[in-house]
Write a structure and sequence with these properties.
Low-confidence stretches of chain A: none
Shape of chain A: globular
Helix content of chain B: 55-70%
Structural class of chain A: alpha/beta
Shape of chain B: rod-shaped
Low-confidence stretches of chain B: none
Mean pLDDT of chain B: 81
Largest sheet of chain A: 6 strands, mixed
Structural class of chain B: alpha+beta
Distance between the termini of chain B: 37 Å
Strand order of the largest sheet of chain B: 2-3-1-4
Largest interface: A-B, 24 and 20 residues
Number of domains of chain B: 2
Order of helices and strands of chain A: EEEHEEHEHHHEHEHEE
Oligomer: heterodimer
Number of strands of chain A: 10
Strand content of chain B: 5-15%
Number of helices of chain B: 9
Helix content of chain A: 25-40%
Radius of gyration of chain A: 17 Å
Number of helices of chain A: 7
Chain lengths: 221, 293
């Protein structure tokens, strides 16, 4: 599903952000990407959704080689990937419903089909009660659930979560991590960047650890 | 139907999203469109003025020593030509006096007039600097009995013709320049909107929307702004040209303005819309690229 082979990335010649990263993540697997700030976690995740291109090596996502991918095809790749950010990246002035509906708008589904999908997902995530609330009025935990709902609505093959628990309280952090684990159990490949040791202990999974752009640990549970 | 209305809904959402920015954008666009509409009226008026400009030019036939009767007879024969509007006979004395009057030296010599030729002046219409009729009349009658030389005011006619070409070229050049300015301003206006909505565009980009999909809302926003600006500019133009100039200020110049048919405003509107659509799409594309690494 996700394959990194000797991947390097540098913006300035001789100064690598990532160096020789090699790993694979299979369908339905859950993987923590850990490391200190600046270790390269976010950069690695950005390579997956083709926000960056590697300077060397191969990045293969669901059979697509990112290295030589035309910018024209990037949006189509991203439709197969759900992305969750620490800062949520939601449209604050819109409602929960409008935010979750955004990926479906691209596919121009009919309104009843969209509503059915959205309601089912909001029920599953326990946020159906805030369906018509404006995002600006929500708590951090609620916003992150909305972001997860938006990431899941297209039933993507891959979920990338970049520090999704960074802006929420402990209780919500557990709930969100548990939710992502359940998503993986349903067949979606999940990569979650975090440096929260407690979370990793509570919900054990494979861990890939980075240090100054190098892969220093791959637990492969 | 809902699917078709979705871009319009999105465009209206962007349009009403920031009233200050929308007001500023409309003010700028209205100003530029007003200039282009004024330019259309001026260009049309100038073109219309020159297209309709018809002057009576005269071919001069210089006569040898022939009697006035013979000259008049030749004149009558020439007058049968349908291209000829009039024929005037000038005696040696009249030609002499006209010459003195033109040169302004005021020398009066009673005997001098005998050295001047009598003349027949053949009037004909010249439209848009077309000298072919003058040339053919000159060629036809310069060989007549008693005619020693023929000429016409070629210089003034050709200068008029060149002036018309210069004005036409100037109008086209300024029109093209104005179109570029309008395109650039629309581009800047949409960039301002995009910077305000950078986060929203980033979200669209993340979820896999294509640049075209993202552009639709902003293109619709620009189209709405252009329609509002065009109508506003048109109303201002009417007030400016036909009330302020003609009624309040009573400017003579206003009477020379020719109001172009509505179809010309429709062409201008289509050109403005096309420029807006292209520049806004280019703006969104470049913005999306600049936000990507």
């Amino acid at each position: 599903m996700i394959r990194f082979q000797d991947v390097s990335l540098s913006f300035i010649k001789g100064e690598n952000i990532l160096t020789d990263i090699t790993f694979q993540a299979q369908r339905g697997s859950f993987t923590y990407i850990s490391g200190r700030s600046g270790a390269g976690k976010t950069t690695l995740l950005r390579l997956i959704y083709a926000d960056l291109k590697p300077s060397g090596g191969i990045v293969n996502i669901a059979g697509n080689d990112i290295t030589g991918m035309s910018p024209r095809l990037v949006p189509f790749l991203r439709r197969q990937i759900g992305i969750v950010f620490q800062d949520f990246k939601l449209i604050e002035d819109s409602t929960v419903y409008e935010n979750v509906k955004l990926p479906l708008d691209i596919f121009r589904l009919s309104r009843p089909v969209m509503d059915e999908k959205i309601d089912a997902l909001l029920h599953r995530l326990g946020i159906i009660n805030i369906k018509f609330a404006t995002v600006r009025t929500l708590s951090g935990g609620e916003k992150q659930r909305v972001a997860i709902a938006r990431a899941l609505i297209n039933e993507p093959f891959i979920i990338i979560a970049d520090e999704p628990t960074g802006n929420v309280d402990v209780e919500n952090a557990y709930a969100i991590t548990e939710l992502l684990h359940n998503v993986a159990k349903n067949g979606t490949t999940v990569l979650m960047a975090t440096h929260d040791l407690l979370l990793k202990k509570m919900f054990p999974a494979r861990e890939i650890s980075l240090d100054r752009g190098k892969l220093v640990l791959d637990t492969k549970i | 139907m809902t699917k078709l209305l979705l871009p319009l809904q999105k465009g209206l959402k962007v349009f009403f999203g920031n009233p200050m920015l929308t007001f500023f954008s409309i003010t700028v666009l209205t100003s530029v469109i007003l200039v282009s509409q004024i330019f259309l009226v001026l260009g049309f008026s100038i073109n219309n003025y020159f297209q309709g400009l018809t002057l009576i030019s005269e071919v001069r036939l210089y006569l040898d020593d022939i009697s006035e009767d013979k000259a008049q007879s030749l004149g009558n024969k020439i007058l049968e030509n349908p291209n000829v509007t009039h024929v005037r006979y000038l005696s040696k004395d009249q030609v002499y006096r006209a010459s003195v009057s033109l040169s302004g030296d005021g020398v009066s010599d009673k005997d001098a007039a005998q050295y001047f030729p009598a003349m027949l002046l053949i009037g004909t219409q010249v439209s848009n600097g077309d000298t072919s009729t003058l040339e053919s009349i000159m060629a036809e009658y310069s060989q007549s009995n008693g005619v020693i030389y023929a000429s016409y005011g070629k210089e003034i006619v050709s200068k008029l013709k060149i002036l018309y070409y210069y004005i036409s070229a100037g109008v086209l050049l300024l029109g093209a320049l104005l179109f570029l300015v309008l395109t650039f301003i629309t581009y800047v206006v949409i960039k301002l909107t995009l910077y305000r909505l950078a986060k929203e565009i980033e979200v669209y980009s993340i979820i896999g929307a294509t640049p075209l999909f993202i552009s639709v809302a902003y293109i619709m926003d620009v189209i709405i702004k252009l329609v509002v600006s065009f109508v506003a500019a048109y109303l201002i133009l009417l007030t400016l040209a036909y009330y302020t100039l003609a009624v309040l200020l009573n400017v003579d110049f206003a009477s020379y303005l020719v109001y172009p048919p509505m179809s010309y405003f429709l062409y201008l509107f289509i050109a403005v819309l096309l420029s807006g659509i292209l520049s806004s799409y280019a703006g969104v594309r470049s913005f999306i690229r600049s936000t990507q690494s």
